[in-house]
Amino acid sequence: MTATSHPEGGRHSDLVIAGGGLAGASLALAMARALPHRAITVVESFPLARDALPDSYQPSYDARSTALAWGSRQIFQDLGLWSALARQATPIQHIHVSDRGRFGATRLAAGDHHQEALGYVVDNRWLGLCLMAALRQCPQVRWLAPATVETVGAEAGATRVQVRAGDGTLHDLRTQCMVLADGGRSGLREQLGFQVERRDYGQHALIANVSTAERHQFTAFERFTDAGPMALLPHGGPGPASACTSALVWTLSPDALDTVMAASPDDRCRQLQQRFGWRLGRFTRMGECSHYPLSLVTVPEPVRPGVVLIGNAAHALHPVAGQGFNLALRGITALVEQFQRADARGDALGSLSTLKAYQQAHQADWQRTVQFSDSLVHLFGAGIPGLGLARDAGLVGLDLVAPAKRWFARQAMGLGARRPDYHHNQTADAAAGTSGHSIEERS
Ligand SMILES: Cc1cc2nc3c(=O)[nH]c(=O)nc-3n(C[C@H](O)[C@H](O)[C@H](O)COP(=O)(O)OP(=O)(O)OC[C@H]3O[C@@H](n4cnc5c(N)ncnc54)[C@H](O)[C@@H]3O)c2cc1C
To answer: Name one Pfam family in it (predicted).
Structure first.
């Protein structure tokens, strides 16, 4: 990877990715592995992080994290990144789903599926650093940062991209395919007039790490309360030392959020205790809290000639089911597989037939995952009389009926996606965890 904030005028890249967040960086790596002869440019508004490389990583108590499904571990393994990621990944060996104040509950165990974990919890910062360390080994990936994609337009046989460099100058790039990975508030999606469907959940997610008197024993708790769902994910790494920290996702009404945010640290722990119960003993500490308004955002037609949306630009889901980035990764593998086919046929990467084939290949997974997340919120979030009994019946039923439980587990584990062949060997996996490669600077 080369890094610069000054794109040369009119330069051509086979693929330009707007946004170097988790989705954009994962796509760049997947492309570099699958089609190493293709030139890729990633444009990212924020400067490139270059301080702590994975070897010197210090986990922070307040770090935000992502639950990676088992299927995402397989994808990162294919990309040669898993051995690096695993050093700081907390395995989820059990998932306990319950309904506050009712008897219904279901339990999933990795052992029942003959796997070492159902998924993993990884700090977003660690994930980003591992991706960057791997991308540093990929000379075909050029990283423009800080730089912002300002406009995207069609031109005969190509897509034209205007980039504002860090020094304020405007540059033209040309590409076969422009990927919008510019996040949930995608300005480029709006600028290009993609139709967006948005449904506000009327709730906020409060995110914080919490300490508990009892060890999490690598168990994730999904708990449904009359005020909305909450999740506690095991956190703190694979070793037993930090086994009393969990990552909290707590959905709250706007009023309840105000009350929690106005409370003292001890009072916050007490309110959480009241909502969650005592399965992990007493809550002893709650770290820095951040919160987000929640809505379901989908783009029914995420492709057009020369342009495709991925990651949060294509879909933003309720975080309680932990599916957003996992779905994005499966979308990325489906897209890369179609790019490989286009490459073999000699077609342009951004041809409408290639992008439509991607959309079609990913559609069923996309629909299933959106419905899975959304139905969890509706079934378990609504205070509708009588629904509690149905939920009890549903959870108990899920616990007893093996095929239903397997279905639920497969959704949670993110299994079933096809994966392309990547052209790399084991050294790539090892290299992802190493530091010390300098970044070429051009100014
Ligand atoms: C509270 C919460 C908890 C979550 N938990 C989970 C979980 O447990 N499991 C899971 O799978 N998913 C989870 N998700 C979803 C997951 O975080 C997202 O799917 C993931 O971060 C998507 O990243 P992205 O790269 O698409 O977007 P972003 O992370 O928003 O990245 C977009 C990037 O684009 C850059 N950018 C924007 N505009 C431009 C431009 N014009 N030019 C250049 N660069 C630009 C931005 O600087 C940014 O770096 C959660 C989400 C939330 C909100």
So the answer is: FAD_binding_3
104 lines ligand 1 (CB under 6 A): no
Contact indicator for 319, 381 with CB cutoff of 8 Å: no
pLDDT interval class at 439 (50, 70, 90): very low
Given a cut of 50, is residue 208 above it in pLDDT? yes
Buried b (16+ CB within 10 A) or exposed e, 114-127: ebebbbbbbbebbb
Is 322 close to ligand 1, i.e. is its CB under 6 Å away?
Answer: yes
Average pLDDT, the chain: 85
> Whose CA is closest to atom 17 on ligand 1?
325
Mean pLDDT of 55-82: 89
Ligand 1, atom 48: closest residue by C-alpha: 21
pLDDT, residue 149, reads 98
Cα–Cα distance measured from residue 216 to residue 49, given in angstroms and rounded to the nearest whole number = 32
Contact status, residue 206 vs residue 289, Cβ threshold 8 Å: yes
User: Has residue 355 been placed in a domain?
Assistant: yes
Q: Which range of residues forms the domain containing residue 126?
A: 2-198+295-423
Burial class (CB in 10 A: 0-12, 13-18, 19+), 278: exposed
> From the CB of 319, is ligand 1 less than 6 Å away?
yes
Residue 240 in domain: no
End-to-end CA separation in angstroms for the chain: 16
- Lowest mean pLDDT of 48-62, 69-83, 207-221, name the range: 48-62
Task: Centre a 10 Å sphere on the Cβ of residue 72 and count the other Cβ atoms it contains.
Answer: 27
pLDDT category at 314 given cuts 50, 70, 90 is: very high
The more confidently predicted of residues 84 and 395 is 84
Determine, yes or no, domain membership for 243.
no
Token pair of 354, please? 């290639």
Number of domains in the chain: 1
CATH of the domain at 57: 3.50.50.60
Side-chain half-sphere CA neighbours of 163 within 13 A: 35
Task: Report which ligand 1 atom has the smallest distance to the Cα of 25.
Answer: 25
Give which of 24, 42, 20, 40 is closest to 32, Cα–Cα. Answer: 40
Report the distance separating Cα 80 and Cα 421, nearest Å.
Answer: 12
